[in-house]
Design a protein that fits this description.
Order of helices and strands: HEEHEEEEEEHEEH
Helix content: 10-25%
Radius of gyration: 23 Å
Oligomer: single chain
Number of helices: 4
Strand order of the largest sheet: 3-1-7-8
Number of strands: 10
Shape: globular
């Protein structure tokens, strides 16, 4: 996944001349002495990169000096904490789910009991609120006219 993030990042940077990344709060993210604000701890922080910036992307993350206000801060952004890469100019975004413990928990689905066509109990994932339930069973002409 990190190779894909890197590829998308550099493609957008080359095409648009700048790229935005959304970084989620993590103890592993270093924003110099600045750190995260309370709002950024909840929503993450958006950082902007352009080709003129001196940054290094390695297998662990991005190392860069960013200026917040007038104060340059040495920063390190771990790749797993980058949750979105986007370009407003290209109307393009690449979003990933966090790969930490919370993400694994959210991917775990609860099972509910349903019945198959033979009337036997089977396990199926809990339906999402965004899924429309469709009944594909055939109805006789009498049932349709009721």
């Amino acid at each position: 996944m990190n190779n894909l993030k890197k590829h998308v990042f550099f493609e957008l940077l080359n095409l648009a001349g700048r790229v935005f990344i959304l970084v989620r709060y993590s103890d592993n993210v270093v924003l110099g002495k600045r750190g995260f604000t309370a709002e950024e701890r909840e929503n993450g922080i958006v950082l902007v990169f352009n080709p003129k910036m001196n940054f290094a992307w390695d297998e662990y993350g991005i190392t860069v000096t960013l200026v917040f206000g007038t104060s340059p801060q040495r920063c390190f952004i771990p790749l797993e904490d980058i949750t979105a890469i986007y370009s407003p100019e290209l109307n393009t975004q690449f979003i990933t789910a966090p790969q930490g413990e919370e993400s694994r928990k959210s991917r775990t689905k609860k099972n509910i009991q349903t019945r198959d066509h033979a009337g036997d109990d089977i396990q199926s994932p809990e339906p999402s609120e965004n899924v429309i339930k469709v009944d594909f069973t055939r109805k006789t002409k009498e049932e349709k006219n009721l």
